[in-house]
User: Fold this.
Amino acid sequence: MQITLSPTRRDAPLTLSRQGDALTINGEVFDFAPLPEGATLPREAIASDWFAGPVERVGGALRLSLVLPHGANAPQETLFPAPLTLTGDGPVTLPPYEMDITDAD
Assistant:
């Protein structure tokens, strides 16, 4: 599974996990197992604001874009995220929502 992340300023962080062809986004499951090879599911056909584009199956792998929410103090790795290639199941590590800013006294 290949995921492109689209950084967007939002107040709600994202939790993501994978189980086969299913993604769980903030507790909601999206199962793309029925999507056949070469098919594209348009963004408008997915009932979620977390998808930033269509979902495609190319060469047996799912390709999709997700919104990556971030806070006001997001680090560079969140503002300019690398694409993710998921090969296993379980929780997905995402770039941090924002930097931990501590006061220097």
In short: The two ends are 46 Å apart (CA to CA). Residues 2-89 form one domain. The first strand starts at residue 2 and ends at 9. The chain has one domain: 2-89.
